[in-house]
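Reopening: structure tokens for the pyridoxal-5'-phosphate complex, inputs below.
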Amino acid sequence: MHTGRHFLQIPGPTNTPLPILSALAIPTIDHRGPEFQKLGADVLKRVKLVFRTEQPVIIYPASGTGAWEAALVNTLSPGDKVLMFQTGWFATLWSKMAAKLGIAAEFLEGDWRTGADANRIEQRLRADTTHEIKAVCVVHNETSTGVTSDIAAVRAAVDAAGHPALLMVDTISSLGSIDYRHDAWGVDVTVAGSQKGLMLPPGLSFNAVSPKAREAAKTARLPRSFWDWEDMIAANTTGFFPYTPATNMLQGLKVALDMLLDEGLENVFARHARAAEATRRAVRHWGLEIQCTNEAEYSGVLTAVRLPEGHSADHLRAEILARSNMSLGNGLGPLADRVFRIGHLGDFHDLMVTGTLSGVEMGLAACGVPHNPGGVDAAMRWLSGNSAPRALAS
Ligand SMILES: *Cc1c(COP(=O)(O)O)cnc(C)c1O
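Re-run output (same inputs, fresh job):
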């Protein structure tokens, strides 16, 4: 039995703030009635601000994986080729899904420590003179490694190659936490989910879709029904959905949008960057290695930390859960037991960051992992010397 609040410091699902929890508990309403229509119209309109788009954003009652599938089945035909970049575990899962759907996914090999390499993408596209590649699919924030890829650079690479491929981006762990611009970066399909930066429980996922993607959908022949964009867009024009939406999750989304937009997206991003910097200061002080090796690609959302050879990251996480009632992210795929991941996203403030770091530092000591004590102090010194975002005047 644990006392006190559980610290959910995995990189999603994240801590759900009380105002959102209260909204989820509003009695379920008629999804064909006038009250719902107002709710639907409001969230469908304002969610675009978070994607920074004026194009339709489709909302599915599904986890992020569903929105991955929607992006592929709406735009592609059996046997189509797509180019993906192996940033880590989530990019790997997306490519496996493509293969299962009968798409030929070409996977540019990565090192799981850096982001998508725009130059290599450009070279590959230049070599594709017959334009066999129909889409380039990239994960914006690779949640398995804590590496954020430069999507504007990938866009520029596609343009420089003069290639007509669609650009699809997974922002499941970055939307609402790291700067992202669907329209300005010329993204055709943005895939997102509810349980990370949007601070909701798992259960909603999203596709923001460009006119070019909708055009491709007209001739795309992969079977689709539940995921069909045009059925959604047609019903959404009046605030409704073609099948029962996750009504209570949309009540929660309304409040999540209030919170993010009241704080201001720039402030939200700065708050994440601040927590990330404080976390890296602690990790460096401990003398542990950060999985991401390119400073320009450090994630504002999570930090993956490598354990010294011979020490088990899973044992450390289990010990921290037992001692401090805190969940940390596990290592995925080849990083299993080698890294643990500190989530610093969603609803949190400085004390949650330092509380999280103190739980880690106590765990390192308890498990006999070699480290220099005082990482929490290093984080606190940096936080106190750098002005915190002020609470908003109400
Ligand atoms: C969490 C995550 C997913 C998977 O989303 P689910 O909601 O678990 O289906 C995919 N991609 C990234 C980058 C993620 O962080």
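The mean pLDDT is 97. The chain has two domains: 7-14+264-393, 18-261. Marking as resolved unless the reporter disagrees.
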